[in-house]
Amino acid sequence: MYTLYTGYGVDTASLFLGGFLSSAVFGTVLGLFVDDYGRKLACMVFCFLEVVINLLEHVPDFRLLLVGRVLGGLSTSLLFSSFESWMVSEHRKQGYPEELLSSTFALASTGNGIMAIIAGLIAQVACDRLGDIGPFQAAIALTVLAWVLIATLWDENKAEHEGEAATRSGWATLKSSVSESSALIWTRPAIAGIGMAMALFEGAMYTFVFNWVPRLMQLAPTALPTGIVFSSFMVCVSAGGILYSLAQEHKVTAEATSHGIFIMSALAMAVCAVSNQLDPTMIAFCAFETFVGVSFACLGVLRSRYIPESHMAGILACVRLPLNLLVVIGTKLSDVWPADRVFWVCTAWHLGASAVLALGLSVDAKRKAKTK
């Protein structure tokens, strides 16, 4: 996307900023409806939006590209709330053992990485044959396939309500979702800690996503094969899912694993901040992507363990508000600061994620101990 927008000669930073602002404002609101109106439906809406977005990418007009980024903000909110919420709900609906959720998240992290590797290779081939727009054309076909599979193979599941809650209007649903999700975040320190840790970690991750291409282009002596580099990153994400499975076998808790990846991610970003050479920077980038792969699994386990299923999508939507605000900050900093300073900010956010998670879980444990 960065390469495509650069080729169009449009303001890349403003387009990315528009997408994250859209996700922070409109995406949060949209996500609050998911639990009540149907998680399968939300996943299908995501696919529809992605097709529209990729069609708009064909037009080298800033206004239409901005519309695409705004729609991308909406689809991103659905991506990170609807699919996981559907899976956790369906897992419990089918009566599968709760401990298998950890294995499911680990397999999903590994599988996501493998599919992204394949996608990166397809993107490189499409780019070589069709130009920078090629990967977006391939994405349309794959998204349509995903929509068909969801429509035909998935069952719908929604949050269960009784009485007036079961027949409330859209506005009443929104008010209730905001009130209930906010109350859970405010009154349960573990949920607040997990939510803020997610926001800080993923805020740094998306800031990294915005910066890795220009940083490597700056350091690489020849043209950068972005598709191959992306596939390399996804190999690391898959490795992260495998590492989490190994941690499970050795009885390492998801809580301890989360602290470990936050601290190690901070170290990786610190290396990126101090290095002006390609090799150590690339190694640090790959290490960070490995920790991202671990985070997909262990944070998913923490969410399923501490966040009520009936409000999962709503709470995840609320968490995306501070997350996207952090990404907006990171994007704007990239315009005014050199890369090394931006990576120092990412380092601080990773350390902050470890701190708020520890605080939230500690306070929650003390409260539970007092009630016993």
Report what the structure shows.
With 372 residues, the protein is mainly α. The protein has a single domain (2-365), classed as Growth Hormone, Chain: A (Up-down Bundle), CATH 1.20.1250.20. The chain has helices at 2-8, 12-31, 34-37, 39-56, 62-79, 82-93, 100-130, 134-153, 170-187, 189-219, 226-249, 254-274, 278-306, 312-336, 339-371. It is globular. The termini are far apart. 45% of the residues are buried.
Break the fold down into its secondary structure elements and pairings.
Layout: H1 2-8, H2 12-31, H3 34-37, H4 39-56, H5 62-79, H6 82-93, H7 100-130, H8 134-153, H9 170-187, H10 189-219, H11 226-249, H12 254-274, H13 278-306, H14 312-336, H15 339-371
E-strand count: 0
Q: Report low-confidence residues grouped into runs of 5 or more.
A: 162-167
Task: Give the termini separation.
Answer: 53 Å
Secondary-structure arrangement, i.e. CATH architecture: Up-down Bundle
Largest sheet: none
Overall SS class = mainly alpha
CATH topology: Growth Hormone, Chain: A
The CATH superfamily is identified as: MFS general substrate transporter like domains
Shape: globular
How many structural domains can be distinguished in the coordinates? 1
**Would you tell me the overall average pLDDT?**
85
**Would you list the SSEs in sequence order as H and E?**
HHHHHHHHHHHHHHH
Helical fraction equals over 70%
The CATH class designation is Mainly Alpha
Function: Mediates high-affinity intracellular uptake of the rare oligo-element molybdenum.
Subcellular location: Cell membrane
GO molecular function, one term: molybdate ion transmembrane transporter activity
GO biological process, one term: monoatomic ion transport
